[in-house]
Amino acid sequence: MVSPPHEAMHRIFQHDPALFSRVSRFLGVDVPTPLKATALPTDLTEAGPVERRVDTLLRFETTEQGAFLLAVEAQGKKDPGKPASWAYYTAYLWTKYRLPTALLVVCQDHATARWAQQPMSSGPPQLPTLTLRPLVAGPHNMPVITDPDEARADLVLAGLAAITHAADPAVDAILKALSTALRDAPEDVANPIVEFTAQGLGNRPAKHLWRNLVAVDLSFYKSYLVEEVRAESRAEDILVVLEQRGLDVSDDVRTRITDCTDPDVLRRWLIRAVTAPKAEEIFQDE
Fold first, then answer.
1. Do both 112 and 52 map to the same domain?
2. Which of 106, 108, 138, 179 falls between 20 and 30 A from 266, CA-CA?
């Protein structure tokens, strides 16, 4: 099953394809800003029964380098089978589109980034034949953006910084700078970054800080994350009222309350919780 952090690490490049040219300077290469960027189909399956999909595939048009392809792969851990898959992707794309093909691997921990950066050859040591040298973006080279003004200058890059540093202590300062910068951004600009960042943090401890920052600093946005945080807060209020009144709250009642995400329903339950003789009766007529 594909995890939210995996999706965020590559889909952010679909959201803003030109992000790659801005990221490239941290990777030791100089990729010009594209004149045009197009997202291509990610299905690399051939006529045979084996299905292969690259995470994100972009076609860039540039003045200096002409057209080229960029395959973006999100990698959460070391996987001995991945180098062969990556070699297949790049060779297949080169053959299919007849365009130079680059590979960017996005990681969230130092060990995986070091592993992914190593040159990987398909042949024996004396006959390397095909050697893969992916570009790798991760906590070892992505910027630590803790200044709201710097985050405001490139919100998508600041979002990627939060995602790639999700497991680092620095992520708290990055998230605070990003939430501050997003206050001034239009809703249609801020919402995708709010969601990408939430996805990228996954179940790490920093997710709680981000949810609180979004609920407070960005409370005027109507993203699913904001609504989810508000719903959780109201569910907690219902449980507190019931428990303070000395009512028995069964596991079934607690689960039904905490699983509900409809703010109107939760508001009705909260009102009923003040006077209901039994916890179960807050659900009457539902």
1. yes
2. 179
